[in-house]
Design brief:
The chain is of the alpha+beta class and 227 residues long. The protein has helices spanning 12-19, 26-34, 43-52, 59-65, 68-71, 79-101, 109-120, 157-166, 187-203; strands at residues 127-133, 139-147, 171-177, 206-213, 218-220. The model has no long low-confidence stretch (mean pLDDT 85).
């Protein structure tokens, strides 16, 4: 059935206006984003088909983990709709992270590893991130400094501390992932950390820790007495 022929209370847009966004199913929310379906199914049915495809308990998480090409393997999902799915799920992730990280005080390696684990553990390339902290060890902001190959991230202390100075950070924590899932540090990881630590000493901005994220595991340079 075409959405325009549904009862007004069942049309996703009108339903949202009448009852609020919380009243809509996941499929109805995606239907509003898609705006149109295909020749054979309306936008709601297309969204239901997309959500059912993985046959798992967490279809939204599964969708987030799929690439654009993988989404396009679903009948009726082309480049535009795949990009729409990625965009809305990424915005949702960023909202959740901002709400979770606001005014968080870092008290341990575990607290920051838990905060960034889901961001980094699924990535297929190494991503080097800097977290800027104030005098109370509360997060000011974070920034991706480098995205490298599967084997290495090239990081220069200049890039690490540029925004730390602009934001008057008192200290920093650096984090990066190992796509292999093994968080044990390489020789390069150790060398880069030493360079950043020395640069921070000169600038008066302490490097509190370097966290390497693996698959549900992490290594803290501070806990391992590597800094």
């Amino acid at each position: 059935m075409q959405i325009s022929k549904m009862h007004i209370s069942q049309r996703p847009m009108e339903k949202m206006q009448m009852y609020g966004k919380e009243a809509l199913t996941d499929a109805e929310l995606f239907a509003i984003i898609f705006r149109s379906g295909t020749r054979n199914m309306n936008a709601v049915d297309l969204a239901k088909q997309m959500l059912r495809k993985n046959n798992c308990e967490s279809p939204l998480v599964s969708l987030y983990e799929q690439s654009l090409l993988e989404l396009q393997e679903i009948s009726g999902i082309g480049e535009v709709k795949a990009a729409q799915v990625h965009a809305v799920l990424e915005l949702s992730r960023r909202i959740a992270k901002q709400k979770h990280s606001k005014d968080i005080k870092i008290t341990s390696a575990n607290s920051i590893a838990n905060l960034y684990m889901e961001d980094l553990r699924h990535l297929k390339k190494e991503c080097f991130k800097v977290v800027y902290l104030d005098t109370k060890n509360t997060i000011i902001s974070d920034e991706n400094i480098s995205v490298g190959s599967l084997n290495a991230s090239i990081v220069h202390p200049r890039e690490v501390f540029k925004n730390a100075i602009k934001q008057s950070a008192n200290s920093i924590i650096v984090i990066h992932n190992h796509p292999s899932g093994d968080p044990n540090p390489s020789r390069e990881d150790i060398n880069v950390t030493k360079r950043i630590e020395k640069a921070g000493e000169l600038l008066g901005i302490a490097l509190l820790d370097h966290i390497i994220i693996g698959d549900q595991r992490y290594i803290s340079f501070k806990e391992e007495k590597l800094i």
